[in-house]
Amino acid sequence: MTPLPGEARVVVLGGGMAGCAAALEAAEVLEGKGVVLLRRSLGATALSSGGIDLADDPGYARGDPLDREGDVARNLARLLDREGPAHPYALLGGGERVADLARAAWDRLARWTGGLVEGGMENAPLATSYGTYRFCAGAQATQRGGDLRKLAGKRLLVVGLAALPEFEADFVAQSLASLLPLEGASSVEVSWAPPADLGRGNPFEVARSLDEEDAPGRFAEAVARASEGRAYDALLLPPVVGLHRSREALRAISDRLGCAAFESLAGSPSVAGLRLQKALDRALEGAGVVRVDAEVRSLHPEGDRIARIDLADGRTVAVASGGGAVLATGGILGGGIVHDDGLRERLLDLPVFSGGRPARGLANDDLFGTSYGDRHPIFSSGLLLEARLRPSGGGGPLFENLFAAGDVVGGRDTVQGREGLGTALLLGIASGRAASGSGAWEGRP
Amino acid sequence: MFDVAVVGGGVNGTGIARDAALRGLKVVLFEKNDLGSGTTGASSGMIHGGLRYLLQDPQVTRLACLDSGYIQRIVPHLLFRIPFLMLVRGKPSFYLDLVDTYVSVYDRFAPLKRGLRHLRLSRSEALRLEPGLSPEIQGGVLFDEWGIDTFRLCALNARSARDAGAVVRTHTEVVGFLFEGSSIVGLRVRPRGGSAQASEEVRARVVVNAAGPWLPKLCGLAGASGRIRPGKGIHVVFDRRLSNLALLFDAVDGRSIFLMPHEQESWLGTTDDDFYGDLDRPTAGRDEIEYLFQGAERVFPSIREARAVRVFSGVRPTLARWGGYEDDLSRDHEVWDHEERDGVGGFLTIAGGKLASYRAMSEEVVDRIVGRFGLAARSITHERPLPGGEAPAPPVAQLARTYALAEHTALRLAYRHGGETPRVLEGVREDPARGRVLCACEPVTAAEVSWACRNEWAVTLDDVRRRTRLGQGPCQGTLCTLPGAVALGRERNFPPPRVFVEAADFLEERFRERRPALRGMQTVQEVLHQTLHRSVANLDELGERMRRTGGT
Prior knowledge:
Chain A is an alpha/beta fold. Chain A has 12 helices and 19 strands.
């Protein structure tokens, strides 16, 4: 069991993208001292596809699929025009300031994850494991290489694995060829199985098997044999090329076959999500953040500040004076927001808002549209933050030193919207700075 | 020229088509949606003896028990025994004696449906059998009933009809009648949602209206009278079996409601309310669901902790009567000859009735028809097995070994297909991809999806669900919608964009049943469901784009 210090400057609750970003940013400000991260379990970040959104063209469903506004800064501005001041990006200071923060965030995320993740200010269409495409501003380096626009006029080979039947290489190839102006797309199936048949149908075991020293080479040989006589310019693989050494493994395959190779965005379960989570965990360790895997029982206010946090196992940590706590417990998927009699915030029962009104006691008719494809109000429900990213009931902060980040915060649609993990990253960084007492990215200018 | 045109692909319509075809008549059946997609598929799925009707309609009880026995004979694999425990709570101490005596009378009918004699349970015996029961109960009486997969029952009746020469047309709507004088001599039909130009004329000597709650609409088209008292019923479905016994108890208004294991789920039902809404899209309201939970928690206190995954709603075509509460209405059935009623010749309607007596009702309708034709052919539907009912399935362990399936997969497959299971699995040994499990919850293999498309009129992914239960389990299609759509596309040679349209249609259709149940962990599941389809797979964008271009 990781020892829990009796007191910390910054205590982060939740260890997904938002929580890790908050803790890592706080650790940079505080030079690696006095930051504690409490985590109950893996959450939505570990389930994510590998793709990271910031802002898509709000009119994306119209017109030619590949012809759309790809510039993230311009999309941010248009998104804020449409969504108004309740959107978390508005709290972060609006279009230009958010774009600045995003540029800084990509640098940090690349550094924190040791290059696993790459991002930029241009959305690129990436292939999904379902044979579709989606536009993302960032993704894992092994996925981001597959900008589908660059494949126009080229021949794609989609590689399936007998051990992973849910990745249907023939359908993915057919579908991408029908959606995009490719020269052609074909598929092969490779009978690659992890040792002792541990992993039939288990992508994590398949990925682990490709971490082994000579595995990528042998895998490439198998692809070469299966595709003998076939001409292709690029390889699309399911997102299982290594769990810990994905870039090395993919590079080895690409080198051996003499062509570009990339992975698709993951469905569920997601090896890419686990990779991201593990990379963030390593970053926490490297930055001196004390991570404790335990359930929080309660937060204790003293006056207008959170003074102490108790764990379910009886341990306790005090929040130092001048320090703060960051609530990054996730949305509905992560468990920070609970749907029973309406919506409630799990740890402190903070007020949750849905479309501007209190979400306590709301019926399903208020929380869900009638069609699957609607913008369901529940997906943009969450905490309301004041200008310095502290939960509020509509006026000032509820606690002077309690900040919030990630999907526990409302104001943007976490399902239908295309801001996804990017919002969590940006809010995480900003709240980490705010909680550690640093002035930058604190809010509206 | 057909002898009989049947309108409606529920259990009555398919039952009538089968009976008529087996008697040598030339039969065509039209269903505007899918087999079993209306009242039949939204019923409690019970071939029960009708204990409820013993005092009021003893003939309904007798008929139901008798026919329950026949149905077990013709399709043994599709029935499963459900022991029912009728609970007593908050009643004077003699009340258990009263129930005991009442059910003793029912014992006389039990042998007809292969039921065991009832058993009286003391409070402690009941609690030992069902530890989830409230200690407040006073005891109960245990008796036997039977459950069935209603979708498959319809498909098997339709298959048997087709084997005897009938033509079955699903997703085909009746839009008018052909007349000669005041007599109906046929129908005008068109593909559902198709244009007026797409309509065609089909001639038949007799048209049978087996449209269930839609029957008044059809009578209206024919210029005939047809009044029913539509009654809506809902069932809340839980992600697993919550009890081993079906529990029968009182709701706040004294009505009998139940919490019943059904296949791998538990169902909490049902309501009965006069219905005036859209027959094509009945949905459950918060008040109806709360009514059921409130009744259930009185005898099964942990019910609110359980995970409800969906709520299904259907409308009964109950015989009309002015006055009387919904529950007091007769469950009896009537066959209307519209020549006698309204002077419209060549047109019969079947109204009212219960799932358990569908076969006898079908026989009665076809008796009328052959009588009119001056024929003597008698019904054989009580002894001729339905497809798969001719012989038992091979042992599960053997199926699992032979086709390299998990035993659980083989078990569910054998339940659904009985003696036909090896035919469904044809080709799996040569091509293991056909044995791949597409829906892990139920589980459903690729081979079964092919079978449903090739032999059981599955056209859409929702049709596949009704035949196979794909997407019906706790994850509610989170992981099997796209693989299912790809398998359907492969079977029907769809281009990839059409596959996404099929998936998007299925997502839209299934949400209607999930929405009223969303709460707690099921909402968490819904977030994952929608994130995967709408955001990760990008169907919000692609489904919309493809639909606009017609999926080509």
